[in-house]
Structures are given as C-alpha cells and as structure tokens.
Design brief:
Helix content: 25-40%
Order of helices and strands: EHEEHEHEEEHEEHEEHEHEEHE
Distance between the termini: 25 Å
Largest sheet: 6 strands, mixed
Mean pLDDT: 94
Shape: globular
Length: 280
C-alpha cells in the first residue's frame, strides 16, 4: 500500500486535499483524523505538519508526500522532488528598514537576519560568501526588526504590503521561487507512478477545455492553425458533406480568443466544456 503524506493545515492543505479528490482518491472527513485508508486505490494518507513531511518521506517512513519546495530545501532531508503541482506559489526575499544601512546582500555580513527558514537562507548566503546571524522565528518575522530582535528579515513576499506596513523594503535578489511539489524518498515506491499520472491528469483538466464546433470543410486547415490540439483535432463528417464537426482541446485561458477566431473562419455551434480528468 502506498503511504502518502498530506499537509494537515496551512495554505497547502485544502488545495492538496482537493487535488487528491479530483484525482479519484477518498480523503478524511474529520479534520482531526490523522490517518485515512483508501483501500479501493491501495493508498494510506497521513496528515502531517507541512514542515515535517520532507523529514518523514526522506527517512523512508512514508513513500511520497506533498509539501512546499521551500520546506523541502529547508528540511535538509534526502527526499527528492518528483514534480511541481502548480499551486502554493511563493517568493522569498530579503527586507530591511527603508532608507537604512542595509540595501544589498553583502551588508548582511555579521548582522541578525530573522527567518522561518534558517537552513534555506544560510545556504543562500553562504554561496555568496556572506555570514550572518540567523534568528529563527515561526511566523510574523516582519515584527522582529521593530522589536530589536533582528536587523533584517528573509520572508515570503507576495505584494510586499505587509513588509511596507512594518517599515521594511525589499532588497537583493530572489532567494527562492517556491511552489507545492510531490516528493519521494530515495527508494521509489512503484505506486508513485500511478499517483503522478493522476495528479498530472488533474493539472491538465484544470488548464484545458474541450472545444467542439461545426465548420465549412474548406476552412479546416485554417482552423487547425487556430487550435491544433495536443496532437491534432478530431474531425467527423456531417450529413452536409461541405461541413465537418471538429473537437479539440485548448488552453482554458485562451478559450474566448479561440472562439472568436473560429467564428470569423465560419465556425458555428461552438461549444466549450470543462475536462474533469485526463491522461496525455
């Protein structure tokens, strides 16, 4: 039975559980439940702190897990990233008091830097020949400078509004672009390939839609230039031999543009439907 680690809380938890449900797995019904067995699919889910997942998987206690790339790298675990899952994106940056003495990486030498990811930040600084005193905090690191605990911070940044509200400004290069990832131990369980196919199918289903339309047969080549599909469109004859029915998969965010262009070519009865599962 494949043993899978799933985040039990935080920003990754809900999306990870939803993704597994869309992939055909059953999940826990009670948020207090720590273990759930999906016998039909031959898997067992363990709901763990996101920060601990890489450690469990890397040790071989569990076969595979969903966590953040930042948490994987900060753990120092031997677990390996298999694939990214296209959610939970975050960017790590340095920040210091606006207009203060620190505005570049080299100026962090000998300074105190507050962060929730000391290993990740230390590795980043060491590769640049900078040695700083790292102050490990679990969240709300932007308050550390005002409270005199640190001279600068290294934290997750989205819009930067939280840092600005604390009187800090971003400086230096990006430390890490993180996202949710699927990880495994050094000994790869054979059931992981099936899990990975299912999760990739979910990603495809979320990113693509199916377009069906009727088209004058003499416009088929032009329509294929607009929407060529994964390999090529599926074309079926209609009772009127001068027309054909076409079915093709396209990126969801391009749907309206594709519909407009197909209509201009003479396509009619253009329908767009969602994809609930896929294997490419």
């Amino acid at each position: 039975m494949l043993r899978i680690a799933v985040p039990n809380k935080g920003s990754l938890s809900e999306v990870a559980s939803q993704m597994l449900a869309e992939a055909g797995y059953s999940g826990r019904r009670d948020s207090r439940q720590l273990v759930h067995t999906d016998a039909r699919n031959g898997v067992e889910f363990f709901y763990l702190r996101p920060r601990d997942i890489a450690t469990y998987v890397g040790s071989g206690a569990l076969d595979v897990g969903i966590t953040g790339r930042d948490l994987l790298l900060d753990s120092g675990s031997s677990a390996q990233e298999i694939d990214h899952l296209d959610f939970g994106d975050s960017t790590f940056r340095f920040a210091a008091p606006a207009g203060g003495e620190i505005s570049e990486i080299a100026q962090l030498a000998g300074r105190r830097v507050a962060t929730s990811y000391p290993r990740l930040v230390d590795d980043f600084l060491q590769t640049r020949g900078v040695t700083a005193e790292l102050v490990k905090l679990d969240g709300a690191v932007e308050s550390s400078v005002r409270l005199g605990v640190a001279d600068a911070v290294a934290d997750v940044v989205s819009t930067g509004a939280t840092l600005r509200a604390a009187g800090l400004e971003i400086f230096g290069p990006v430390i890490l672009e993180s996202t949710a990832v699927l990880i495994s131990g050094e000994q790869r369980h054979p059931g992981i390939d099936r899990l990975l196919r299912r999760l990739r199918g979910v990603l495809v289903a979320r990113k693509f839609v199916m377009v069906e339309y009727d088209l004058p047969a003499d416009q088929l080549e032009a329509a294929a230039e607009v929407a060529g599909g994964v390999e090529s469109p599926t074309v079926s004859p209609l009772k009127d031999e001068s027309w054909v029915a076409v079915r093709v998969m396209i990126p969801a965010d391009a749907a309206n543009d594709v519909m407009d262009r197909l209509y201009e070519l003479g396509a009619r009865a253009i329908l767009v439907t969602a994809i609930h599962a896929a294997r490419l």
